[in-house]
C-alpha cells in the first residue's frame, strides 16, 4: 500500500511528478510554510512568504470580478513561470522552468493537493519487467493506469 | 467531391506552416502574463494595466531569482 502523502512531502512529490519544477512550497490555511521541496529548506521560508503575498495580490486584483475567487494562478515571467493552486486548507506553489506546459503544471498541482486532501495516491506506470510475473487481471490493468485519479469533491 | 491530391511540395509547405504555428503559439505562451483560473478551470487574464498586476509580476520574478541564486 502506498504511503499517505504528508504536507512535509507534498512539495517534493510535485517535483517528482514534473521535471519542470525547480522549487515548490506548501502553505497551510494560515499562510504558514508547511513544506518545501528537498533542496529548498533554506530558501523555503522566503519562498513561502513570497507565495503567500502572491495569492494576496491575486485576490486583491480580482476582488471586484464577478467570479469566484481564483483557485489557480499562472504567472509567466522572463526566464520561467510560477504556478499556484489552492484548496481551503492548502496552497501549493511551484517555480517552474521556462517553457513548462501550463496545463500539465496546473494538473500536477491539483493532483498533489487532491492526494494531500485524502484522494487516491498518484501512481506511476511500471514496465512489464518491473512488475512481478502473474496472470493478467483487470485489477492489474487498473493499477497501470498512467493518469492519477483525483478524489471527487 | 474528390479531394485534391497534394504533392510533396505542398505537403512540405503544410508541415512548415504547422511548425511555424507551433513556434508562434509557444512564444505567445511564454509572454509575460498573469492568468487566474476559477474552480471550473476557466482562465482569465489579469490585464497589464490592472490593479496589482505589476506587483504580481514582481513577486513571481523575485521567486525565480531566489531559486536561481541557490542553483
Key structural traits:
heterodimer; A: 153 residues; alpha+beta; 5-stranded antiparallel sheet; 5 strands; B: 71 residues; two-stranded antiparallel ribbon; 55% helix; elongated
Describe the structure.
The complex is a heterodimer of chains A (153) and B (71). Chain A is of the alpha+beta class and 153 residues long. Chain A has four helices and five strands. A five-stranded antiparallel beta sheet of chain A has the order 2-1-5-4-3, with helices on both faces. In chain A, a hairpin with a 2-residue loop joins strand 3 (72-77) and strand 4. The radius of gyration of chain A is 17 Å and the shape is globular. The mean pLDDT of chain A is 83. By secondary structure, chain B is of the alpha+beta class. Helices cover 55% and strands 13% of the residues of chain B. Chain B has a two-stranded antiparallel sheet. The longest helix of chain B has 22 residues, at 8-29. Chain B is elongated and about 55 Å long. Chain B starts with 7 loop residues before the first helix and ends with a helix. Chains A and B meet through helix 2, strand 3 and strand 4 of A and strand 1, strand 2 and helix 2 of B.
Amino acid at each position: 500500500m502506498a504511503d499517505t502523502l504528508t504536507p512535509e512531502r507534498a512539495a517534493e512529490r510535485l517535483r517528482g511528478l514534473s521535471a519542470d519544477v525547480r522549487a515548490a512550497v506548501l502553505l497551510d490555511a494560515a499562510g504558514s510554510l508547511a513544506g518545501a521541496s528537498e533542496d529548498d529548506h533554506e530558501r523555503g521560508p522566503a519562498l513561502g512568504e513570497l507565495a503567500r503575498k502572491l495569492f494576496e495580490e491575486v485576490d486583491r486584483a480580482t476582488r471586484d470580478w464577478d467570479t469566484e475567487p481564483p483557485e489557480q494562478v499562472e504567472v509567466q515571467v522572463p526566464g520561467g513561470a510560477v504556478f499556484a493552486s489552492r484548496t481551503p486548507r492548502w496552497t501549493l506553489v511551484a517555480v517552474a522552468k521556462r517553457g513548462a506546459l501550463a496545463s500539465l503544471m496546473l494538473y500536477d498541482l491539483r493532483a498533489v493537493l487532491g492526494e494531500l486532501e485524502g484522494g487516491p495516491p498518484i501512481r506511476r506506470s511500471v514496465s512489464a519487467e518491473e512488475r512481478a510475473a502473474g496472470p493478467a487481471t483487470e485489477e492489474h490493468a487498473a493499477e497501470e493506469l498512467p493518469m492519477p485519479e483525483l478524489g471527487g469533491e | 467531391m474528390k479531394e485534391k491530391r497534394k504533392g510533396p511540395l505542398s505537403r512540405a509547405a503544410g508541415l512548415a506552416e504547422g511548425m511555424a504555428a507551433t513556434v508562434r503559439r509557444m512564444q505567445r505562451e511564454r509572454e509575460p502574463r498573469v492568468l487566474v483560473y476559477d474552480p471550473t478551470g476557466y482562465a482569465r487574464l489579469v490585464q497589464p494595466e490592472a490593479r496589482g498586476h505589476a506587483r504580481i509580476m514582481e513577486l513571481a520574478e523575485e521567486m525565480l531569482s531566489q531559486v536561481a541564486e541557490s542553483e
